[in-house]
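Good day; I would like, with your permission, to put a structural problem before you. A protein sequence and the structure tokens that stand for its backbone fold form the material at issue. I would ask you to consider whether the tokens describe a fold that such a sequence might reasonably adopt. I set the record out below, with my sincere thanks for your time.
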Amino acid sequence: MGKRIFYFLLTNVLVLVTISIIFSLIGGGNYINEQGGIDYASLLVVSAVIGFTGSFISLAMSRWMAKKMMNVRVLHPEGPLAQHEKEIVDKVHRLSRAAGLTHMPEVGLYDAAEVNAFATGPSKKRSLVAVSTGLLQEMDDDAVEGVIAHEVAHIANGDMVTMTLLQGVVNTFVVFLARIAAWGVSRFVREDLAPVVHFIAVLVFQIAFSILGSLVVFAYSRHREYHADKGGADLAGRDKMVHALKTLKAYSNRINEDDQDTIATLKINNKGKSMLFSTHPDLDERIRRLSM
């Protein structure tokens, strides 16, 4: 869950920087007017082109990126599968049909001790649901179904596309403000050094502002988790969804604080930590809302 957001944001930053470098090298998007000042209208257009291009490329790469970085093994329904693998595929497809999806997501499994699952992909027709071996070892059948229902709900809700649009808006402001700040810095150096300083400053400010902009994406991610919990409850049943969250809570209570930073990538227990940098709300609050 948390890793889906992390990889999407990482890919977005890398793509955004790459596009910005290419634009600078080919001289595209000139927003400096004849007086040496900024043409803000032109800059806004350039920023929107770069920003939304970056976010949509990140979305297009999301499923491929997740498979490569997590070493996900796709479970093909028609291929030879172990019994537990077949059960995972059956759960994903059954819940997907219940959610009204006409194209079944790819189902993947990856080896990791962490209790984790995620859904990603550029569209409902090209999505992926993957679970870790650690999740299968730690959870019983009902809890696993609750987790999978939650991930299928993310796909049915079109969360990745919505996040892409939000990221495109954030990227636009990141590019826009980074270039204004870089222009300001370049005014304090010699004229012959100004282009080089401006180029470097754009990249530095863009990365810095991207990190700040990610706070907006994190806030949206926390908000949409409640909707995915509700969707998961509608698909698998409220008892199974609550049971899944309580199992995650029990797991998070068993591992020590050091392990939570490296193993609990779901961000399933955020008490005592700043919510600003969390992709998921507190587990107790999620359980409380479902139990109302």
